[in-house]
Each structure stands twice: as structure tokens, then as C-alpha cells.
Amino acid sequence: MTTNTSTNGTPVKAPRLEFAKAAPRAFRALVAFDAAAREGLDPPLVELIRIRASHLNGCAYCLHMHTNDAREAGESEDRLHMVAVWREARHFFTEREQAALALTEAVTLVAGAGVPDDVCAEAAARFDERELAQVLAVILTINTWNRVALSTGKLAGTDER
User: Fold this and answer.
1) What is the domain-level CATH number for residue 104?
2) By the 8 A CB rule, do 3 and 14 touch?
3) What's the predicted TM-score (pTM) here?
4) Cα 21 to Cα 27: distance, rounded to the nearest angstrom
5) DSSP string, 53-97
6) Residue 5: which region, alpha, beta or left (left: phi > 0; alpha: psi -120 to 50)?
7) C-alpha span between 87 and 45 (Å, rounded)
8) For the chain, how many structural domains are there in total?
9) Which of 46, 84, 139, 157 lies 20 to 30 Å (CA to CA) from residue 104?
10) 29 domain residue, yes or no
């Protein structure tokens, strides 16, 4: 069944589940958590975190949405192309951004090796306690959004916002 067409005009399958409609209280709670997580953080930093987690989780829907959001927040194409390989392109990113990206990877891939102390220490050296908590909250929310999008069958390019 198709409900939409993609940006190139091809039919797009309907999602498996309309999460926002099926669980509206849970959806609104997640939206509120996401908004609270971003408070006080620079929008480009938030988008870099969201992009990196979406890369790692293989979430094309969120990756498409957040690369567009990053552009709207003033992010350059060069930096967007380098997020996936930031360790090899550190000169594109500030020390704070590198610390946030490393923490994003550790938390997103937590089952592999946990969250290493050195990654936490580097992030704590670059962010005050409140900022660090906000960065962690952004990482947690995007990982949740990625899982919602992947498990419900959201397709890249069909963002209804």
C-alpha cells in the first residue's frame, strides 16, 4: 500500500505503525523530553549529535531529517560530509564537538564496551555539568527516535513536520 510519493516521484510504502497516533501520550512525552534535552545547547551541536547517532543506528529517516535541520541551523556541507569520519577529520570540529561525538558513539554503541571512563572524562572537561547532562539527554532522545523510526518503518524523505 502506498500513501505518499518520494522526492523523486516513486511510491512510498506506508509506515508499519503510526506511533504518534497509536501511543499519543508516549509520543508527546518523547517530544517533550527531546525539547527539554536541547535547552541551552547550540543547535548545530545538537544536530551533529543526532546525525552521528543516526549514522551508527542506520536510521535514514532521522539522518535525512537532521542533515536538513543542520543546514537550516547554518551547518556547512563540508562538515556534514565529515561527521561519519570525524576522527579522521578532527580539524573540521571543535574540541567540544569531538567530545560530544565520542560520547554519542559510546552511548549509542553501549552494548559493545560500555561508556569508557576516558570518553566521559573528555566530555566532562569540555562541558559543564548541566551542559553534559543536556548532551547526554540529546544522545538518549535521538537513540530513542532512531528506534521508533526504524521499528515503525519510517522512510527517509517523508518527514511531515
Assistant:
1) 1.20.1290.10
2) yes
3) 0.90
4) 8
5) HHHHHT-HHHHHHHHHHHHHTT--HHHHHHGGGGGGGGGGS-HHH
6) beta
7) 16
8) 1
9) 157
10) no
